[in-house]
Structures are given as C-alpha cells and as structure tokens.
Amino acid sequence: MMRLFPEEIAHDLGLWSLKLLHLVGFKIPKRSTLNKTSLKGITFANKLGLAAGLDKNGDYIDPLASLGFGFLEIGTVTPRPQKGNPKPRLFRVSSQEALINSLGFNNKGVDYLVENVSKRKSSIPLGISIGKNSDTPLEKAKDDYLICLEKVFPYADYIAINISSPNTEGLRDLFNKEYFSDLISSLKLKQIELSKEHEYVPLFLKISPNIDSSHLKLLVEIILEKNIDGIICTNTSNVHDHLSGKGGISGKPLLELSSKVLVTLRSLTGKNFPIIASGGVMSVSDFQGKLDCGADLVQIYTGLIYRGPSLVDEIINSD
User: Domains in the chain, ordered, with CATH?
Assistant: First the structure.
C-alpha cells in the first residue's frame, strides 16, 4: 500500500502509522532473553538493530523499540537544522529490493533530537549518529562533530561518527589522512573529557563500502592507535547506475560488497574488536551471514522498508 505513494511521503506515513499503533497499545510480544549479548559494557536483548537514517530526529524511538529490536541507532544529526538536498532525493528500485538515498542529512538539529531522547520511555540501547552541516568547510568539520558529541553524550549508549555518507558533498574526504587523524584524535580527547562527568560512551566509526583494502588498512591502524571503540560496516555505496546519478544505494545490491569489506575489516582488527554490520540484510540468512563474516551486531534499514516488521520477528526468533 505504501508503495503507491512517493518515497519520502511513504517513509513518513509508515513512521506515523507505527507511532499511532504504539499510542493505541500495539506491541510485539516480548521474546526470550536467551539471546542477550554484551558489547563495550552495553547489554543487548538480541543482536539485531535499526540502522541510522530511518528516525533522523528521535521522533519514533518508543514505537520502533516496540518492534523487538535489540538496539536502535538514530540520526544522523548535525549541530544546526538543515533541509538536506533538493527533492526528489529518495528512490525505490523495487526490482532489486533497493533504495537510492541522497537525502543529505536532513534533520532538525541536535538540540531537537536531544529533547526527544530525554523524553523517551523505553530503555532500549540507543546509538546516536552525528555528522557535520553541509555548509561547514572540511577544515572546520571537527568542530561540528565535537558540538554534537558533547550534546548527545549524556543520552547515548554509543555514538556513531558518520563521515561516510555519500550524500553530503566532500564528506568522505574526511577519510583522507590530512583530516582523519586530527578528527579522530579530537573526538577521542573529548570523549575522555566527558567521561569524567558522565558514564563512558563508546565511539563507533561508520565506514564506506567503497574503500579499497590499502586505505582501509591505514584507517584501521589509526583507529586502533587512537583507541576508537568500534566500527560500523558499512554505509551506502555510491557505485550504481540509477538514473538520478546521485546518492547511495542500499538493500540487496549492497549485501555482497558490504560483506566483503566486513571480512577484510575483521582480518585487520582481530577477532575481539567490536564491529556492527550494516548493508543489504533482507532475510534471516543475510543476518546470519553477517555474523559468520565476523560481525558482533547487525543492523537493518532497507530490509525493514521492503519486508516490514515481520523481518524483525523472523530474525530475532531464528535461533
């Protein structure tokens, strides 16, 4: 039914419908706690999470938590509100079970998100993804990340550093060595400073699937040297042939590429380094495949769009 509407309208209608169902008392029955797992001091009811991008502003935390996820990641949020890229900027590719997303960090700003998070009733582990405003030059990008880090720190169970979206011009340039080491060092110092006042909150870096092995090796060396807590593997891919000629592709076409990066990443980090996998999970077998490739936790987004909440139920009850 939702596929009859333009993509962004369908997105909003779906979330509003979920919120309405939650308000009238709809809940997925509670499941067994036998699948509980812990990572970086956080206890997860299961290994399945929601990837950032669906709930950019923290408007739907409690309704999404009711679906049975083990954790949620909200955002990406920026210091100031911004409208994102011009429309149309979200496209279905139904024949491939894919989405093309060129939204561009459209969000209401970090203060709005923090207000929503402070009012949530569910206790589900919450990751918050942070980014930079589109008009902030790269040489000042770390200031945006530091602003967001400080504001969300008291409210997050982990914080995702998003420098891998293909939808903000130049953002992926932050992976270049001239910016990357300074950004990571600054965020780590701020994390240590904030941990003196609040509980320690892990930092996870979200990487691109379009990174070559030699560059990934260099980044992992810096990540390990700076004691970043984990990696999210991966964001969307900017390699596609959609007529829009822009944005990143998610869904089934991303599975093989993101899993290939995951295998390489696990070999570089060793078996104990925390990795959250994301990219192309559309079924129980895809979920298990990510775990087999070395992931500790797994996220979905496009799979939820195409398969609905039943996918969550199938995955968390698949053991």
Answer: 2-316 (3.20.20.70)
